[in-house]
Design brief:
The complex is a heterodimer. Chain A is an alpha+beta fold. In chain A, the strands form eleven sheets. In chain A, strands 29-32-33-37-36-35-34 form a seven-stranded mixed beta sheet. In chain A, helix 8 packs antiparallel against helix 11. Chain B has helices spanning 2-22, 26-37, 42-48, 55-94, 113-126, 141-144, 184-192, 233-248, 303-308, 325-333, 346-349, and strands at residues 131-132, 138-140, 176-178, 197-206, 218-228, 254-258, 264-273, 292-301, 317-323. The longest helix of chain B is centred in the N-terminal third of the chain and has 40 residues, at 55-94. The termini of chain B are far apart. In chain B, helix 2 runs antiparallel to helix 4 and helix 5 (113-126) packs across helix 8. The chains are: A alpha+beta, B alpha+beta.
Chain lengths: 804, 352
């Protein structure tokens, strides 16, 4: 919302410098985004055209003698068709910095010879001064513009760019902002007086107006001006609109826009001669009706849409936009002026339906008060006559169903004020605040006060709204600052939040970098990781930002691989990434199941390039080591089972493992399937990926986490054992058998061998086995006996023999 | 015999001491010890021959031998110390390495800056008795809007451009969305418990919004809520002031101004004084010369919201607030573009 300070000053005195004013407004809730100074026209002044004569060498140019007000006379070449002797104009001397319409840049004006005649300056257009877009002619100033006055002093202005919150509809208007400034500075506000002669015949005989659907149009007022002449608006009117960001069109239309900016009430002018039977009916559209709106679009209507119709067809979308069929044209002489109140909810729905958000709909949707309609109607009627002439018909139409407008009295008690703010405010102070805001007040008793807010403050509806008015006017700094003193509630248990924090820390502590990526991905990305719709159709976004982000991810894998692939472009690695986030699994008729997953991808060389390190590629066992340590930090000692390619289509079918804890799967680890690595064009192979399912970790039986083991005082004994087993026997099975024994404290696999000296189809596994007892020192004989027993079990269960 | 034995001891001692003076490393010293003092060493062999002497001679020569042994041992000890001290004096030259060579790389992982800042924020409130709760990222319109005093058709809905889930229910409505704020948990939690309530809700939120240096369509939010009998706007000020001090330093000042959110009334927005220029630099990049930096929105819980969850809005009052961890991280670390956060560029992530 652009508000020119010069316009505001018409209603309220402003002593504050613009920046200070902007600050006060902002603190009170009307945020001023920017303060723009209009001006900076050095070497420009108000000039007077003394004489216009033809250019000797060019038909389209003229020579003007200009009085710049300092006793001199200047000769200037001018190409504008509207220049005439006696005009007050914007004169630029040599040295002025102006917008050059040919080079499209700001340039310093130089004396120039134009077709043989020296021009000593320039008469400026809007565009050259930066006042607007106009460049067909020069800016003509009012006759009373003082010749010689610096243009900055005469035309300079300050524009406040307001970022108005949806509740403060009043501040979409200049008068509304003036009222706000009045309240903040204690200055009275002068509302323009409306007075005009109704010299025409009674309106009721000239036009007929009725409202068929008062639920959607609680108030409809109309006036009639006949015999007027359409033309351009006077300069002052054009200037105001331009500075407020609107484009002048013609006098009548400009007035409707002007009054909308001034009072907030959108108005519409119909060419009465184009309204069939001079009859206006406000009604719901009939099925099948259509209307070409002012923007030239043919729109299909439905019965939810409120139209302004003549005796047969719609001529406007109520409160949104007018129809082309009743548009004001250059030959219009009779104007029926509408100022109405429309149902905000319906208005917004109509705007949504047609994706048509106009200055009118933006106001009506926020709920304008019906009291405003006749006030703005009269103001606009007067102004139309002033700028377009004509005769005003006697009386107005005012169709008002008051029952549809709620009562507005709100009562504030000092008890509630204190309960909410935590401070006492006297009834006098409260009263003063409301007075400054032009609220009608009535003191109910010593501790409460009733208020009727003015029509421009449609946002005041409950007691808390009044409390806000009090605190924002007296200032938030005047409220005490206290720490909470109510009892601290019991802590809500948050096991998942805590687990997530521990998982993230554990993953980072084994060397993985946390990433966070967009939870929306493309189907294509999901297909690239073999997460196809047949397996699980992901939830789709109805209005995605882009095609790349239109599905809620059911896996983190695609995101991680994109992260990897992206970083391969900038880095040599090694790459160790994880992300802890939710995946979304659709459920019919319900919100999706949001499951917490910690997933990672690891690839590249084992170490950053170094003169010390013999560097190989990171592989499955590196990541298994990381996860083992990471899970140990969480107090978990998982087991690892070979996993099938079917259950993990993204993984290498021969290099994937289920991570098991207490019999349930808590995750998966494996090399990325080579074909997927191809699709992501990964530079380093293999890429090893994993997923940890936090929801499953959370449901592990109690006691599977950390459990204290007493520290034994007795020494351990160790034996090295090399076992020969069939190649297909997983080392984990052998190790598990050894681990299980109560006297075995620890088992370390230190060598795996197959080849020479071994029977084909066999491999050798060599372990350090540590024996220890918690209650005595083991004898050599005990250790040997235990080992013998273990070997017998190994022989029986996995066909293991001792290697010679 | 005595004479010659005594002489041999004397000779051996002199020889040994002569040699000892020339030795300059611990290996040679050890060899010397073995040669003269070892079980098969020179002195030991001579003393072993004592058995063939008579008792007086044995005593005399024995004493001589023991004296020689102590002398040699003392001298060895002395020389050992000299040698080791000489070696230590030279160790810099002998064992010098190039300390400017790079160290052996160790893998380190870090938490994402958002994770770190969210934790800082929640820690500050946990210390003031708030609990952490989390809620679903995919929400119903009911919780995201309706229960927060933002009914269908309310113009304030424009404040939250929404990403809708492609799901149409039996009534032909599209009721499922990606939450636009973490505020829905206000209603969810209050529905499930009676006051007192003190909680913070960290989490991801989504907006239908074009991205630029200060806007993302996916970001984080920490929502806060405190409801009980007797909670006031003054408490809101104190709690958020304390938060600002914990995050931005104990010297920070705060400032409140009027703002609008449909689920609070009165509604405010809190700024801190600029920690970068402290209001002294009119071209400050952080506060843009204003001396103040907006960091969060807050307000007293709207009575409509309390009533919607079945609380007695005459009895209970409370405050709510919402803040953006990315914005706070950007301020704290001087990050100039929010899009860095979720592009996952290692060159960015490794800086935190």
């Amino acid at each position: 919302m652009q508000i020119p300070l010069s316009w505001l000053r018409e209603y309220v005195d402003i002593d504050l410098p613009p920046q200070e004013l902007a600050h006060r407004l902002t603190m009170a809730g009307v945020e001023v985004g920017e303060v723009t100074e209009l001006g900076g026209w050095e070497n420009c002044c108000v000039g007077e055209v003394l004489e216009v004569s033809p250019h000797p060498n060019a038909d389209t140019l003229r020579l003007c003698r200009v009085n710049p007000g300092d006793g001199s006379e200047m000769e200037v070449v001018c190409g504008a068709p509207n220049v005439a002797a006696g005009q007050k104009i914007c004169f630029a001397r040599v040295g002025a910095r102006l917008y050059n319409t040919h080079s499209e840049r700001h340039e310093t004006l130089k004396a120039a010879r134009i077709r043989g005649v020296v021009s000593e300056g320039m008469i400026c257009s809007e565009l050259e001064l930066g006042l607007g877009e106009g460049h067909e002619g020069i800016v003509v100033l009012p006759d009373d513009a003082p010749t010689g006055m610096a243009l900055d002093d005469y035309l300079g202005d300050t524009i406040l760019d307001l970022e108005v919150t949806p509740n403060r509809l009043d501040c979409f208007s200049v008068l509304g902002v003036a009222h706000e400034i009045g309240a903040l500075t204690g200055k009275p506000v002068k509302v323009p007086e409306v007075q005009y002669q109704e010299d025409g015949p009674p309106i009721t005989g000239q036009a007929s107006v009725s409202v068929a659907d008062p639920d959607l149009c609680p108030r409809y007022t109309a006036s009639l001006i006949q015999g007027l002449e359409i033309g351009p608006s006077p300069q002052w009117l054009q200037d105001r609109l331009t500075r407020a960001g609107l484009r002048p069109i013609s006098n009548v239309v400009d007035v409707t826009n002007y009054v909308m900016l001034e009072f907030n009430q959108p108005l519409h002018a119909f060419d009465l001669d184009k309204v069939r039977d001079k009859t206006i009916i406000v009604r719901r559209a009939a099925p099948g009706e259509a209307l070409e709106t002012l923007d030239g679009v043919e729109r299909e209507l439905n019965s939810e849409v409120l139209v302004i119709a003549d005796s047969k067809d719609p001529v406007g979308l109520g409160g949104v936009i007018g129809g082309a069929n009743s548009e004001i044209g250059s030959d219009t002489t009779s104007v029926l002026l509408e100022s109405a109140t429309f149902n905000s909810y319906n208005n917004r729905r109509t705007a949504d339906t047609f994706r048509l958000y106009t200055d009118a709909s933006q106001r009506f949707e926020k709920g304008l008060r019906p009291e405003l309609a006749p006030i703005a109607l009269r103001r606009a009627t007067q102004l139309i006559q002033e700028v377009a002439g004509g005769v005003i018909a006697q009386g107005i139409y005012d169709i008002y169903s008051e029952s549809d407008t709620p009562a507005r009295k709100v009562t504030l008690t000092l008890r509630r004020l204190k309960q909410v703010l935590g401070m006492d405010v006297s009834v006098e102070e409260v009263n003063e605040v409301f007075q400054s805001l032009d609220f009608e007040t009535e003191r109910v008793d010593d501790a409460s006060i009733s208020v009727i807010p003015p029509y421009w403050r449609s946002d005041i509806n409950i007691e808390e709204d009044l409390i806000e008015e009090v605190v924002r006017i007296i200032g938030y700094d005047n409220v005490p600052t206290t720490m909470l003193s109510t009892p601290i509630p019991y802590r809500q248990p948050a096991p998942m939040t805590e687990l997530k924090a521990r998982v993230k820390e554990a993953l980072a502590s084994v060397g993985l970098q946390e990433t966070i990526s967009y939870p929306l991905v493309s189907l294509e990305d999901l297909e690239k990781v073999n997460c196809t719709a047949e397996r699980s159709a992901p939830l789709k976004v109805a209005n995605p930002m882009s095609a790349g982000h239109d599905h809620l991810r059911p896996t983190l894998l695609a995101s991680l691989l994109n992260t990897l692939s992206y970083n391969e472009g900038y880095n040599e690695g090694p790459f160790r990434f994880f992300e802890q986030a939710r995946v979304f699994l659709p459920r019919p008729e319900q919100l999706p199941d949001e499951r917490e997953v910690g997933a990672g991808v690891v690839s590249g060389l084992r170490s950053e390039p170094s003169w010390l390190v013999d560097n190989g590629p990171l592989d499955f066992y590196d990541v298994k080591g990381m996860l083992t340590s990471m899970l140990a930090l969480l107090g978990l000692t998982p087991s690892w089972e070979p996993a099938s390619g079917e259950e993990n289509p993204a993984l290498h079918p021969g290099r994937a493992a289920r991570i098991m804890c207490s019999g349930s799967q808590i995750g998966v680890l494996g090399e990325l399937h080579p074909s997927i690595a191809e699709r992501f064009d990964l530079r380093y192979r293999p890429a090893v990926v994993f997923e940890i399912y936090l929801d499953d970790l959370l449901t592990l039986p109690a006691g599977s986490g950390r459990n204290f083991q007493s520290l034994t005082r007795f020494p351990s004994a160790h034996r090295d054992v090399a076992l020969v087993v069939p190649e297909e026997v997983p080392a984990g099975n052998v190790q598990e058998i050894l681990d299980r024994h109560r006297l075995v404290e620890r088992v370390e696999l230190f060598d795996v061998y197959a080849g020479e000296n071994l029977e084909a189809g066999m491999k050798s596994l060599a372990f350090h086995v540590y024996f220890q007892s918690s209650d005595h020192t083991l004898t050599a004989e005990e250790v040997n006996r235990t080992l013998d027993g273990l070997l017998r079990i190994l022989q029986r269960d996995v066909g293991a023999t001792l290697r010679d | 015999m005595t004479q010659s034995t005594a002489q041999s001891i004397e000779d051996l001692t002199q020889t040994a001491l002569g040699e000892l003076a020339l030795l300059d490393n611990s290996d040679a010293l050890e060899q010397w010890r073995v040669r003269y003092l070892g079980r098969r060493g020179g002195l030991t062999s001579i003393l072993r021959g004592l058995s063939q002497l008579d008792i007086d001679q044995r005593r005399e020569v024995g004493a001589l031998g023991n004296r020689a042994k102590s002398t040699l041992e003392e001298e060895l000890e002395k020389r050992s110390q000299e040698v080791s001290q000489a070696r230590l004096a030279q160790v810099a030259d002998l064992e010098r390495i190039d300390v400017t060579l790079p160290g052996r790389p160790v893998a380190t992982g870090r938490l994402h800056p958002t994770t770190q800042v969210v934790r800082e924020i929640t820690d500050a409130f946990v210390a003031m008795g708030f609990s952490i709760v989390e809620g679903p990222e995919v929400e119903w319109d009911h919780y995201n809007f309706e229960m927060l005093n933002i009914p269908q058709g309310h113009p304030a809905r424009d404040m939250w451009n929404t990403l809708w889930v492609d799901y149409v229910n039996e009534e032909g409505q599209r009721p499922m969305l990606l939450r636009t704020h973490t505020s829905p948990m206000q209603a969810r939690v209050m529905e499930s418990m009676q006051p007192p309530v003190r909680l913070v809700v960290p989490g991801k939120v989504y907006r239908y919004e074009a991205t630029d240096a200060t806007h993302e369509w996916h970001f984080h939010q920490v929502e806060g809520l405190a409801v009980d009998e007797g909670i006031t706007f003054a408490d809101l000020k104190g709690t958020l002031y304390e938060f600002a001090r914990q995050i931005f330093g104990a010297r920070r000042q705060v400032r409140f101004r009027c703002d609008y959110f449909p689920f609070v009334e009165p509604g405010v927005d809190m700024s801190i004084d600029c920690f970068s220029c402290e209001g002294t630099d009119s071209s400050c990049r952080i506060c843009r010369g204003s001396g103040w930096i907006e960091i969060l929105g807050a307000g007293m819980v709207h009575p409509y919201v309390l009533r919607a969850v079945g609380y007695d809005s005459e009895k209970y009052t409370g405050f709510a607030f919402g803040l953006g961890p990315e914005r706070i991280a950007m301020l704290k670390y001087g990050i100039d573009d929010i899009r860095h956060f979720y592009s996952n560029d290692l060159r960015f992530l490794r800086q935190f």
